[in-house]
Amino acid sequence: MHDYVRKILTSSVYEVAEQTPLEPMELLSKRLGADILLKREDLQPVFSFKIRGAHNRMAHLSAGERSRGVICASAGNHAQGVALSATRMGIRAVIVMPTTTPAIKVDAVRRLGGEVVLFGDGFDAARAHAAGLAERHGHVFVHPFDDPDVIAGQGTVGLELLRQHPGPIGAIYVPVGGGGLAGGIAAFVKFLRPDIRVIGVEPEEAASMKAAIAAGRPVPLDQVGLFADGVAVRQVGEETFRLCSTLLDDIVTVTADEICAAIKDIFDDHRAIAEPAGALALAGLRREVETGAAPKGALIAINSGANVNFDRLRYVAERAEIGERAEALLAVTIPERPGSYRAFIRLIGRRSITEFNYRYAHSSSARIFVGIKLSGGDAEKQEIIALLEANGLAVTDMTDNEVAKLHVRHMVGGRVAGLADELVYRFQFPERPGALLKFLEGLNDAWNISLFHYRNHGADYGRVLVGIQVPEATRADFIAHIDAIGFPYWDETDNPAYRQFLDIG
194-204 burial string, b = 16+ CB within 10 Å, else e? Predict the structure, then answer.
């Protein structure tokens, strides 16, 4: 540790990097009853801590090495650090990136002056290709994590933390990919403040350091999930393993849903959008607080980056409510008869319905897919399930069912043979508690509902797609009835999307 502390204290990171603020998470702290702070590495010039290690390594290049240029393999954040440092130092930089790298990171590397080579489906394939190019062309390979100078550069985050918070600290939660950041922070913190717990956090689908510690050596994972692409490392390094296995107090793994919830927490508190790897540490901190495993004292999470594709936010928003146990997804079987929908919604009471999907299926019973907003977490969900079952309804909890969350919720429906007189209407109503129940109460039981889709998207208006069986002779009465409800509506019966995918077979 003495060598790393010396390297950290004499590092060159501030030639390009900045000291980032340590900010309180006031809303989350109040909600969880803990003193939670966030280290804002997303505010670096390349929106990631990786600039620290990359520049510190390159600052140690000899004149001859600089003339040969550098090469690296990276899923994006290390690449941007290398590209920016190389440009500042007048060095050629070749960056090998996996073909799965988000476009925002590829574009940023090119904008910073790096020569991008896209290769392979993941970091390990890109690293092997970069090593081959380095051997052929003589470039100096700048490793993203398994290099003492890189580790020391990342360790300056720990130096800043102890300066910024000299008071009692219970634990520091650090995202772990290859282990450079965790190893560097742990080396400095454990040297000066061995009482502080340093806890690594990994995604369940890319827990390479946890696997290495269990095996006693770095081992390759069979598969690596790419949701948190910044930490999607199949095998950790030898040096980072040595440091992390010795200095980390624990490794916590979290789900993608928990990461999404942490992204939302960061936005709620700071109006900042973290990338999945950036919110990873906070997800682990939250897990430990909620399970009672977190120590006393201030709890610090490292927000390691903000390089996220904008379109990824659709998935994040969809899963954040589930990740913070604020939404239950249930499959409920109700009687196939008029009035069943209203009866079901009345049982839910004043709770907000986030989703409601149904398609007629020729049966005495109807199976609906429903999302319900929770304020009391799993305990409230169990209360709802017990209430529904006590009223004779069969319930299956789909909240943690990956197939249901990723696919089935969007596929409820289909074409139904022999379904007569179906009209399809789209309605819009002000989005507020009880609005869906009011809408259902406005429909007349004389017409059978054959299709129903509703999803709360957080907008000012709720939107519902409804299929209703209306015989030709009663259609004038039907139009008069929906006019009386008072909500704007549109006839979608001739919509080609309905005709091709939902109309009768």
Answer: eebbbbbbbbe
Cα(58)–Cα(56) distance, integer angstroms: 6
Residue-wise pLDDT tens digits, 202-219: 999 999 999 999 999 999
Query: Has 304 been annotated as catalytic?
Result: yes
* Residues 441, 444, 450, 455, CA torsion sign: negative
Start-to-end CA span in the chain (Å): 71
Select from 3.40.50.300, 3.30.70.20, 3.20.20.300, 3.40.50.1100 the CATH code of 2-48+148-321: 3.40.50.1100
Q: Which residues, 6 or more positions from 136, have their beta carbon under 8 angstroms from its beta carbon? A: none
Q: Using one digit for the tens of pLDDT, what is the confidence trace for 2-37?
A: 899 999 999 999 999 999 999 999 999 999 999 999
Q: Which fold has domain 51-141?
A: Rossmann fold (3.40.50)
Exposed/middle/buried for 344, CB within 10 Å: 0-12, 13-18, 19+?
buried
pTM: 0.78
In three-state secondary structure terms, 165 is coil
* Phi-psi domain of 413 (left: phi exceeds 0; alpha: psi -120 through 50; beta: other): left
User: How is residue 170 written in tokens?
Assistant: 């219970």
Among 50, 190, 264, 405, the one annotated catalytic: 50
Residues 11, 245, 304, 450: which is the catalytic one? 304
Report the C-alpha gap between 306 and 300 in whole angstroms. Answer: 18
What is the CATH T-level fold of the domain 326-501, as seen in this structure? Biosynthetic Threonine Deaminase; domain 3 (3.40.1020)
- How do beta strands 36-40 and 298-303 pair? parallel
